[in-house]
Amino acid sequence: xxxxxxxxxxLGRPANxxxxxxxxRSTSWELxxxxxxxxxxxxxxxxxxxxxxxxxxYRLTFDTASYFASRNVESFYPEVTIIFILRDARQHYHVPxxxxxxxxxxxxxx
Length: 110
Known about the structure:
- The chain is mainly beta.
- 6% of the residues lie in helices and 45% in strands.
- The protein contains one helix and ten strands; from the N terminus they run ββββββαββββ.
- Strands 1, 2, 5, 8, 9 and 10 form a six-stranded mixed beta sheet that branches. A four-stranded antiparallel beta sheet has the order 4-3-6-7.
Protein backbone atom coordinates (compact mmCIF):
# COMPACT_ATOMS: atom_id res chain seq x y z
CA UNK A 1 0.00 0.00 0.00
CA UNK A 2 1.19 3.51 -0.83
CA UNK A 3 -0.33 6.51 0.94
CA UNK A 4 0.59 10.14 1.43
CA UNK A 5 -0.48 13.28 3.20
CA UNK A 6 0.48 16.95 3.07
CA UNK A 7 0.86 19.39 5.93
CA UNK A 8 1.04 23.06 5.01
CA UNK A 9 3.63 24.16 7.54
CA UNK A 10 2.97 27.85 6.86
CA LEU A 11 -0.53 27.34 8.29
CA GLY A 12 0.08 24.41 10.60
CA ARG A 13 -2.83 22.60 8.90
CA PRO A 14 -3.40 19.85 6.35
CA ALA A 15 -3.32 20.94 2.72
CA ASN A 16 -6.57 19.88 1.09
CA UNK A 17 -7.37 19.83 -2.62
CA UNK A 18 -3.81 19.19 -3.83
CA UNK A 19 -3.78 17.07 -7.04
CA UNK A 20 -1.45 14.06 -6.70
CA UNK A 21 -0.32 11.45 -9.22
CA UNK A 22 1.45 8.13 -8.64
CA UNK A 23 3.56 6.45 -11.30
CA UNK A 24 5.65 3.27 -11.56
CA ARG A 25 8.84 3.05 -13.61
CA SER A 26 9.19 0.03 -15.85
CA THR A 27 10.73 0.95 -19.22
CA SER A 28 9.10 4.39 -18.81
CA TRP A 29 6.83 5.99 -16.21
CA GLU A 30 3.35 4.38 -16.09
CA LEU A 31 0.47 6.23 -14.44
CA UNK A 32 -1.04 4.17 -11.61
CA UNK A 33 -3.39 6.68 -10.05
CA UNK A 34 -4.56 10.25 -9.72
CA UNK A 35 -6.35 11.81 -6.78
CA UNK A 36 -6.28 14.85 -4.56
CA UNK A 37 -5.81 15.38 -0.87
CA UNK A 38 -8.90 15.33 1.33
CA UNK A 39 -9.82 17.72 4.17
CA UNK A 40 -7.25 15.97 6.37
CA UNK A 41 -4.54 16.44 3.69
CA UNK A 42 -4.49 12.69 2.99
CA UNK A 43 -4.65 10.58 -0.15
CA UNK A 44 -5.61 6.98 0.46
CA UNK A 45 -6.83 5.89 -2.97
CA UNK A 46 -3.83 6.38 -5.28
CA UNK A 47 -3.38 2.67 -5.98
CA UNK A 48 -6.36 0.97 -7.67
CA UNK A 49 -7.93 -1.79 -5.55
CA UNK A 50 -7.05 -4.53 -8.06
CA UNK A 51 -3.46 -3.38 -8.66
CA UNK A 52 -0.64 -5.53 -7.30
CA UNK A 53 2.36 -3.45 -6.24
CA UNK A 54 5.79 -4.52 -7.44
CA UNK A 55 9.24 -3.75 -6.14
CA UNK A 56 10.84 -0.87 -7.98
CA UNK A 57 10.79 2.90 -8.44
CA TYR A 58 7.66 4.96 -7.85
CA ARG A 59 7.06 8.66 -8.39
CA LEU A 60 4.63 10.89 -6.52
CA THR A 61 3.95 14.30 -8.07
CA PHE A 62 2.13 17.02 -6.15
CA ASP A 63 0.60 19.96 -8.07
CA THR A 64 1.57 22.61 -5.55
CA ALA A 65 1.02 25.51 -7.99
CA SER A 66 -2.73 24.92 -8.13
CA TYR A 67 -2.92 24.56 -4.34
CA PHE A 68 -1.17 27.86 -3.65
CA ALA A 69 -2.98 29.65 -6.51
CA SER A 70 -6.33 28.59 -5.00
CA ARG A 71 -5.23 30.36 -1.80
CA ASN A 72 -3.85 33.43 -3.66
CA VAL A 73 -0.38 32.68 -2.29
CA GLU A 74 2.77 33.17 -4.33
CA SER A 75 5.05 30.14 -4.23
CA PHE A 76 8.43 29.07 -5.57
CA TYR A 77 7.89 25.40 -6.50
CA PRO A 78 5.08 24.70 -9.02
CA GLU A 79 5.26 21.00 -8.27
CA VAL A 80 7.01 18.61 -5.94
CA THR A 81 8.19 15.25 -7.26
CA ILE A 82 9.30 12.46 -4.94
CA ILE A 83 10.88 9.31 -6.38
CA PHE A 84 11.27 6.39 -3.99
CA ILE A 85 12.02 2.67 -4.09
CA LEU A 86 9.72 -0.10 -2.90
CA ARG A 87 11.94 -2.93 -1.74
CA ASP A 88 9.13 -5.06 -0.26
CA ALA A 89 5.74 -4.64 -1.95
CA ARG A 90 3.98 -6.27 1.04
CA GLN A 91 4.84 -3.33 3.31
CA HIS A 92 2.90 -0.09 3.75
CA TYR A 93 4.76 2.90 2.32
CA HIS A 94 3.56 6.26 3.65
CA VAL A 95 5.27 9.27 2.05
CA PRO A 96 4.31 12.56 3.76
CA UNK A 97 5.06 16.01 2.38
CA UNK A 98 5.67 19.01 4.63
CA UNK A 99 5.03 22.04 2.44
CA UNK A 100 5.21 25.82 2.53
CA UNK A 101 5.35 28.38 -0.30
CA UNK A 102 9.16 28.43 -0.38
CA UNK A 103 10.23 25.00 0.76
CA UNK A 104 9.32 21.39 1.42
CA UNK A 105 10.59 18.22 3.04
CA UNK A 106 9.58 14.59 2.99
CA UNK A 107 10.36 11.34 4.75
CA UNK A 108 9.21 7.74 4.95
CA UNK A 109 6.38 7.70 7.46
CA UNK A 110 4.45 4.91 9.07
